[in-house]
C-alpha cells in the first residue's frame, strides 16, 4: 500500500543539519506515525513520502520554504525587561507564548540584558535546509475517527 491522503504512515527518520549534526530522530521503539495529507508534518517531507511503501528508504533535503520557513527578522524584537513580570530569572533558551494579532506565537529568549530582552519568534529551524534519512515501516488506511480528526489516534 502506498502513502497517500487519508492513510497513516509509520516511519523512522533521522534529521540532520548542513553540518551533519543530528537534530532529531525517531527511536526504534517509537517510530513517527502521521496522517498523510493533513499537514501534520512539514510539507517538503510529506511531498517526498507520497507514493512510498513499506520498506522504502529515502534521503530528502527540504528547503526552508518547504520546512519551517525562511527567517523573518521582523520576528526578532527587543522588549523591556518589565514585559516578563512574574518571571524570576529570564535566560536565553527560555520559551514563552506571546499573544499577537494573528494568535499565539512561541518565542525564544536569545539575549538578556539588564533592562532589555531580545526574543525571536522564528521557529528554531527556520531558514535551515533540513536533511532527512527516512525508512517507511508501514502504511495503512486511516480509521474513520482518524479521517474525521485529520490525525492519528493516540495509541
From TrEMBL:
Origin superkingdom:
Bacteria
Annotated signal sequence is none
Gene Ontology terms describing biological process: protein refolding
Q: State the family it belongs to.
A: Belongs to the FKBP-type PPIase family.
Q: What is its EC number?
A: 5.2.1.8
Where would you find this protein in the cell?
Cytoplasm
Which PROSITE patterns does this UniProt record tie to the protein? FKBP_PPIASE (PS50059)
Q: What keywords sit in the KW lines?
A: Chaperone, Cytoplasm, Isomerase, Rotamase
What name does UniProt use for this protein? Peptidyl-prolyl cis-trans isomerase
Record-annotated PPIase FKBP-type domain positions: 6-83
Amino acid at each position: 500500500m502506498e502513502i497517500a491522503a487519508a492513510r497513516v504512515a509509520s516511519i523512522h527518520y533521522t534529521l540532520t543539519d548542513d553540518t551533519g549534526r543530528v537534530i532529531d530522530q525517531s527511536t526504534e521503539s517509537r517510530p513517527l506515525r502521521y496522517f498523510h495529507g493533513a499537514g501534520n508534518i512539514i510539507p517538503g517531507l510529506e511531498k517526498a513520502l507520497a507514493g512510498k511503501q513499506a520498506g522504502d528508504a529515502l534521503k530528502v533535503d527540504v528547503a526552508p520554504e518547504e520546512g519551517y520557513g525562511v527567517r523573518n527578522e521582523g520576528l526578532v524584537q527587543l522588549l523591556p525587561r518589565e514585559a516578563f513580570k512574574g518571571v524570576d530569572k529570564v535566560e536565553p533558551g527560555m520559551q514563552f507564548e506571546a499573544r499577537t494579532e494573528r494568535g499565539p506565537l512561541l518565542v525564544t529568549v536569545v539575549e538578556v540584558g539588564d533592562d532589555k530582552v531580545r526574543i525571536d519568534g522564528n521557529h528554531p529551524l527556520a531558514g535551515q535546509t533540513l536533511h532527512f534519512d527516512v525508512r517507511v515501516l508501514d502504511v495503512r488506511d486511516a480509521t474513520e475517527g482518524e479521517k474525521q480528526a485529520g490525525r492519528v489516534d493516540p495509541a
